[in-house]
Amino acid sequence: MDYFIWLEETGFSIWMRESGPAFFSSLVLHSLSMAMVVGVNVAIALRILGVAGRVPVSAMARFTPVAYWGLGVVLISGGLLLIAYPTKALTNPVFYFKLLAVIAALFIARGWEKSLLRDAAYDTIRLPKKARLLAMASLVLWTAAITSGRLLAYTYNVLMASHLP
Predict the structure, then answer these.
(1) Rg of the chain's alpha carbons, rounded to an integer?
(2) DSSP 8-state code for residue 159
(3) What is the DSSP letter of 123?
(4) Which has the closest alpha carbon to 89: 21, 16, 28, 20?
(5) pLDDT over threshold 90, residue 63
(6) How many CA atoms lie within 13 A of 152 on its CB side?
(7) Do residues 43 and 142 lie in contact, with contact meaning Cβ atoms separated by under 8 Å?
(8) Taking Cα atoms as reference points, which of 161, 134, 163, 165 lies closest to residue 5?
(9) CB 156 within 8 A of CB 88
(10) 3-class state of residue 90 by DSSP
């Protein structure tokens, strides 16, 4: 807990917590950039599952830079939110569940990018069962990540280590 107390008492952490514009702009940026990352991945997953069958699977690759840009903003804004309330997040199992869901979903997305999205042969054939199962898993993982991220505001046990007796 000493590390949490030290971090909470840094000027930057205090500023992030107490500055409405800093905290809320980080929260808004985190939400919007998550929408970019999740939106691209949901669109690709739905295409793999057969939605919009006329759209070539390989054409979906052009959207991955949007997801990467969004991921960069997610990491920065998430880091800022973490600095604002480190104890609240790092003592909450829901936070780790969210991180695991995001990492697993990104791992699936990277697999698509390296295989399905680079091979035009998949544009006209029914995609392999494994790809469809991974697309369904991706949808579940992104839903879990978003839901658990939202629940972080309500499921913490300790808001700040410096407030403990």
Answers:
(1) 19
(2) S
(3) G
(4) 16
(5) yes
(6) 25
(7) no
(8) 161
(9) yes
(10) helix
CA separation for the pair 81, 86 (Å, rounded): 8
Give the CA distances from residue 50 to residues 43, 100, 102, 131, 142, in Å, rounded to whole numbers and listed in that order: 11, 27, 23, 11, 19
Tokens found for residue 72: 């960069």
Reported as type and span, the H/E element at residue 151 is helix 129-151
* Structure-block tokens of residue 30: 């985190």
Q: What pLDDT is stored for residue 139 in this prediction?
A: 98
pTM here is 0.92
Tell me if 87 sits within 8 A of 8, measured CB to CB. yes
Amino acid (1-letter code) at residue 53: G
Q: What is the pLDDT of residue 165?
A: 62
Position of tokens 């410096």?
Answer: 162
**Per-residue pLDDT for 124 more than 90?**
no
End-to-end CA distance of the chain: 12
- 64: its two tokens: 């991955």
Q: Does the pLDDT value for residue 6 go beyond 80?
A: yes
